[in-house]
Write a structure and sequence with these properties.
Elements (H helix, E strand, L loop, with lengths): L18 H16 L3 H15 L4 H16 L1 H10 L10 H15 L5 H15 L2 H14 L4 H8 L7 H9 L3 H11 L3 H11 L5 E5 L6 H5 L4 E3 L6 E4 L9 H4 L3 E3 L2 H12 L8 E4 L6 H12 L3 E6 L2 H11 L6 E5 L12 E7 L14 H4 L4 H19 E11 L8 H10 L3 E4 L17 E2 L2 H4 L5 E7 L2
Helix pairs in contact: 1-2, 1-3, 1-5, 2-3, 3-5, 4-5, 5-6, 5-7, 6-7, 9-10, 10-11, 14-15, 18-19
Family: Belongs to the class I-like SAM-binding methyltransferase superfamily. RsmB/NOP family.
InterPro entries: MeTrfase_RsmB-F_NOP2_cat, MeTrfase_RsmB-F_NOP2_dom, NusB-like_sf, NusB_RsmB_TIM44, RCMT, RsmB/NOL1/NOP2-like_CS, SAM-dependent_MTases_sf
Pfam families: Methyltr_RsmB-F, NusB
Length: 469
């Protein structure tokens, strides 16, 4: 029997709480457990951390990168993690999987040194999961750390070499069905798809809109860290990740946060040629109010009035807040635009930005790509068609309807417009491309599909229809 003395046990060390990584984990749990959106839950969490003194500006930026980067590449990281464990991924407890994915992003998607990424994530696991499960996290992360992202993709890709869409999805963190839908809408070859998927994984700059008659782009450009938008005369981009609330015009409601693609849609509708009266405009699905605020400002310059309609009361309150202070006449109405309370032929211009899958805004809401399902299209289809039917009823003969959606999926864009036009022969499509002057690569028309990789915007779609009878 050995007579060597036993080594004394190491004293227990309490885990050290890292406020940045704990916040990132809690944000991921909110997205997972409550179907929350990161762009809604993260800002108040960051604000609370700054108020308490736990986070500074650099910490907030790092937490944002951890959350959004993890969500964007979740599918890729799931495949890698699946290669490093001895059980199906679905059998891993969701909180454990969130910690593993957060660690995988630090190892494969950032420049954090390997040792620091592993040790910090294991420490996080000790804080939020306990010491027992932290050992499992440590073992898995050390396997992941054996390769960089390119190395893992080289190991994984051969299994999908006969399925280009699945392979692209794994490489760029998109479900296969979304890759297929985007490819159908984009057309062209694989190189263009690679560019689009890469653009979907880039964090978009914050874009402001100067509301006409209330603010100017030059006023917004007077601040540091700004540059003009690419296409809209009212657009200004914050180039250094600035806080919109720090801009005086935004605080006063004279400017707002709005993607340049949304601005172009509203501007094209307002610029469409019209014969006769141009006094009554309708935003039939106005929430949360960004396009309504821009339209109201443009209408006010012409002496026209905007009616902004929103079905959900809480979203109608957001519309009212966005429109507050508009110099021209407007009203906010809580109503269902599929069952309108106004008479047919009441309006001269109608904007219809329909509820959709949101596949055009995956840069801003990366979790949507994992939350949406192909069957969601069946849910939206009848609503989109019904709304367009009623919008065409609402506009007078000779008036214009702008059908818009933040999705490039053909089932939500051209298929909707074509189906409704077959049932409504008294309509014609107007070429929307000349109404976006200076914007390049707008396709064959007459409708317009914007793209993140081509235009630096969300993938907004617009078709302009004139009611002829």
């Amino acid at each position: 029997m050995s007579t060597r003395p036993r080594r004394p046990a190491k004293p227990y060390r309490r885990p050290k709480k890292d406020p940045v990584r704990v916040l990132a984990f809690e944000a991921l749990r909110a997205v997972d457990e409550r179907d929350a959106y990161a762009n809604l839950v993260l800002p108040p969490m960051l604000a609370k951390g700054r108020e308490s003194g736990d986070l500074d500006a650099r910490d907030a930026a790092f937490a944002t990168e951890l959350v959004y980067g993890t969500l964007r590449r979740q599918g890729t990281y799931d495949v890698v993690i699946g290669r490093c464990i001895d059980r199906p991924l679905r059998e891993v407890d969701p909180p454990v999987l969130d910690v593993l994915t957060l660690g995988a992003h630090q190892l494969l998607g950032t420049r954090i040194p390997t040792h620091a990424a592993v040790s910090a994530t294991v420490e996080l696991a000790r804080v939020v999961l306990g010491d027992g499960r932290a050992k499992f996290v440590n073992a898995v992360l050390r396997k992941i750390a054996a390769e960089d992202l390119d190395g893992w993709l080289e190991r994984v890709a051969p299994a999908y070499e006969d399925d280009a869409e699945e392979c692209l999805g794994i490489r760029h963190g998109h479900p296969r069905w979304i890759v297929s839908a985007l490819w159908d809408a984009l057309g062209g070859g694989r190189a263009g798809m690679e560019e689009l998927l890469e653009a979907d994984n880039e964090r978009p700059a914050v874009t402001l809109v100067a509301r006409p008659g209330r603010a100017t782009a030059d006023e917004l450009l007077a601040g540091d860290g700004t540059e003009p938008g690419r296409w809209s005369p009212y657009a200004v981009r914050l180039t250094e990740g600035g806080e919109p609330g720090a801009v005086e015009a935004v605080r006063e409601g004279r400017a707002g946060v709005q993607d340049e693609g949304s601005q172009l849609v509203a501007l094209a509708l307002a610029a469409a040629p019209l014969e006769g009266s141009d006094r009554r405009w309708l935003d039939a699905c106005a929430g949360p109010g960004g396009k309504a605020a821009l339209l109201a400002a443009l209408a006010a310059e012409r002496g026209a009035a905007l009616t902004a309609v929103e079905k959900q009361p809480h979203r109608a309150r957001l519309v009212a807040r966005a429109l507050a202070g508009n110099p021209g006449p407007y009203q906010v109405v809580i109503a269902d635009s599929t069952r309108p309370s106004w008479l047919p032929g009441t309006f001269d211009r109608v904007l219809l930005d329909v509820p959709c899958t949101g596949l055009g805004a995956l840069r801003r809401r990366p979790e949507s790509r994992w939350r949406r399902r192909p069957e969601d299209l069946d849910r939206f289809a009848p609503l989109q068609r019904g709304l367009l039917e009623q919008a065409l009823n609402a506009v007078r003969p000779g008036g214009i309807v702008g059908y818009a959606t933040c999705s490039p999926h053909l089932a939500e864009t051209r298929a909707v417009v074509d189906d409704v036009r077959k049932r409504r022969p008294g309509t014609e499509l107007i070429d929307a491309r000349p109404l976006m002057p200076g914007v390049e690569q707008l396709g064959d028309g007459p409708d317009v599909q914007l793209w993140p990789h081509r235009h630096g915007t969300d993938a907004m779609y617009l078709a302009l229809l004139r009611r002829t009878a």
